[in-house]
Amino acid sequence: MSASSGMSRRRRALVAVLxxxxxxxxxxxxxxxxxxxxxxxxxxxWTQVFxxxxxxxxxxxxxxxxxxxxxxxxxxxxxxNWGTGEVETMTSxxxxxxxxxxxxxxxxxxxxxxxxxxxxxxxxVRTDFQPPSGGTLRVEARLQMPxxxxxxxxxxxxxxxxxxxxxxxNYQNWPGVGELDIMExxxxxxxxxxxxxxxxxxxxxxxxxxxxxxxxxxxGTTCQSGFHTYTMEWDRSVSPEAIRFSVDGVTYHTVTASQxxxxxxxxxxxxxxxxxxxxxxxxxxxxxxxGGLDSATESGHPMVVDYVQVLQAAGGGSGTTSPPTGSRDAxxxxxxxxxxxxxGVSTETTTDTxxxxxxxxxxxxxxxxxxxxxxxSTAATQFRARVASGAASGISGLVEVRLDSPTSxxxxxxxxxSTGGWQTWTTVPANIxxxxxxxxxxxxxxxxxxxxxVNVNWFTFGH
Length: 463
Known about the structure:
By secondary structure, the chain is mainly β.
């Protein structure tokens, strides 16, 4: 949930917010737990540094030793409407923020008879959440998004996220101080978005105000109809440093320090963070995905939070989760939007056969990372990709395959120019140097000019 407003544009309308869309590389079956499940015991190697299980009498407010209320329509002296264009007034009233007596927190947006909305936004008192040197931080919540869909959900914007500590009291230094969106949802869609915001706005190394993001459907039950566990792991035990986002244990988005320059990363991460839970109504994100509040929007659907837990693991790798290895078959179709990391990449709905999404707005210097691609002992010598281009006459570029680094020598490539439209798809084959074993695969995009030149829907390898 961006702390500042504004919409960056690249090639076509709606780039700014739609740029965070994506699909997961994997799916899992969620384990159904009761709504009032206790927070899990920290696994071996992990230490609990914060927990609120939201146990308390029904109709009472949150524990103010853990949380503080943010009220009104902005921080003091900060951007209006919380910097996002949302329209509700945040309150500390138990009508909007209260415990349910069954171990859950309920943040409930309410519309009064005059059509005005109120809702709730709470933030941890602590602002020191960050991994120890060489260690890992895990921030997790088990929650159910507001159980409302369709036109009744228009304008709903629940979120579980973090802001860099330097923002508190300043309110003018976003996005440079960093923002980590662990769970965002709009319009009652069965999707969870995860995003890192950093750098400068608009544009900059983190493509603001879009940020570096991805999304996926919730495993098992929909995001709205069931509880799911949303997790961020910030890992300083690996190089480059990585921030991973998952739902019910399925990692669907990773941001690494190598995706931005060292100064941008340091400004965004070399400090503590605080945690935020809120339900906004209206604003730029829902507006861009089908329209905001209107008379059909239903009042009174809460985000229900079972627990918020923060763990840390010491350096030396104890308790950390390693990046995936050997998790992709080189000879199966790899959906381009299932990347594990990216630079300059956005996603969008495709009209290609089979539907889904493609990665687009690809230009010189952009890349997408696919971790743990297994080629086996029989060498792959071929590469095929499904591409489309609506580039103007004279604009073209290369789609390249690189192994283990976005700057390694390409093992193969092919050139692409206009195919007749950004959704006019063709499959292009290419030869590559012999590849065996397991590698991180980078698709890189190279051109002699800055204009976007290609979209990619999927790719695969062959013998």
